[in-house]
C-alpha cells in the first residue's frame, strides 16, 4: 500500500505552484527520518508530477474520522505532537526551517504515527524568513511578524513554533477562523495551555 500525490502540469497552470511541488519532492527525496513522510518514488510526465510515499491519511481527515476525546484521544495527540517536534528538531539540526507547518502538512500512517510532510517551503536558516508571494493570500496561521516586521524575527524557527501552536489549537477546536481566536483556549487540555500560550506569544523572541 502506498499514497500518491499528484500535481497537474497542464498548460496555463500556476508556475509558482509547480516550482513548489518540485521543491517539495526534492526535499522529501533527500530527507530521511522516521517522523518525516517516507519517500518511495516519483515520476514526471508531460501532464503530471507524481510523488509516491508510504501509505498515509492526511491529519485533517484523520481528525474528522477520529476526533480526539477523552484520555486516549489526548494521549494520541500528545504522542503525535512529540513525533512532530522530533521531526522539527531534525530539520533544525540540519539547518532547515519548515515555514508551512499546519494540519495539511501532517499525515498519519496506519499505525497512528504522525509524519511531517508538506516540505515545499522548507529553506535553510541562513536564507531567512521567505516572503509571501503576492498571489498567496494571508492565512490565520501566519505568524504576526510576517505582516508586522517591527516585531522582529526572533530565531529562524520562531514562525514554525507559532504555526505549531495554531496546529495544536486546530487539532482540538477545528479550523482557525482568525488569529484572534487563539486567545480562547476552547477544548485545549489544561496541561497544554502553558506551552500553547508560549508558542502563540505575539513576540517572536
Task: Considering the chains and any ligands shown, give keywords for the structure.
Phosphorylase Kinase, domain 1; Transferase(Phosphotransferase), domain 1; 3-stranded antiparallel β-sheet; alpha+beta; 8 strands; globular; 205 residues; 2 domains
Global Rg: 17 Å
CATH superfamily of the largest domain: Transferase(Phosphotransferase) domain 1
**Overall pLDDT score:** 90
- The computed structural class is alpha+beta
| Strand/helix succession | EHEEEHHEEEEHHH
Give the DSSP E fraction (strand runs of 2 or more residues). 15-25%
What is the total domain count? 2
Q: Would you tell me which CATH topology of the largest domain applies?
A: Transferase(Phosphotransferase), domain 1
Please tell me what the overall shape is: globular
- Helices, by number, come to 6
- Unreliable spans: none
Domain Protein kinase: 1-205
Family: Belongs to the protein kinase superfamily.
Function: Regulates COPI-mediated retrograde protein traffic at the interface between the Golgi apparatus and the endoplasmic reticulum. Involved in the maintenance of the Golgi apparatus morphology.
Protein name: N-terminal kinase-like protein
Amino acid at each position: 500500500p502506498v499514497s500518491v500525490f499528484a500535481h497537474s502540469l497542464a498548460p496555463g497552470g500556476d508556475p509558482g505552484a509547480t516550482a513548489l511541488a518540485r521543491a517539495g519532492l526534492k526535499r522529501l527525496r533527500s530527507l530521511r527520518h522516521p517522523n518525516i513522510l517516507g519517500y518511495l518514488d516519483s515520476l514526471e510526465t508531460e501532464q503530471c508530477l507524481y510523488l509516491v510515499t508510504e501509505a498515509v491519511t492526511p491529519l485533517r481527515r484523520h481528525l474528522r474520522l477520529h476526533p480526539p476525546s477523552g484520555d486516549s484521544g489526548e494521549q494520541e495527540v500528545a504522542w503525535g505532537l512529540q513525533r512532530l517536534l522530533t521531526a522539527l528538531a531534525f530539520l533544525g539540526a540540519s539547518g532547515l526551517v519548515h515555514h508551512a507547518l499546519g494540519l495539511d502538512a501532517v499525515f498519519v500512517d496506519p499505525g497512528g504515527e504522525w509524519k511531517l510532510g508538506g516540505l515545499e517551503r522548507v529553506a535553510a536558516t541562513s536564507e531567512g524568513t521567505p516572503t509571501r508571494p503576492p498571489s498567496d493570500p494571508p492565512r490565520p496561521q501566519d505568524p504576526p511578524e510576517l505582516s508586522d516586521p517591527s516585531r522582529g524575527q526572533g530565531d529562524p524557527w520562531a514562525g514554525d513554533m507559532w504555526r505549531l501552536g495554531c496546529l495544536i489549537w486546530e487539532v482540538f477546536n477545528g479550523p482557525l477562523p482568525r488569529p484572534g481566536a487563539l486567545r480562547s483556549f476552547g477544548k485545549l487540555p489544561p496541561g497544554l495551555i502553558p506551552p500553547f500560550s508560549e508558542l502563540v506569544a505575539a513576540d517572536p523572541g
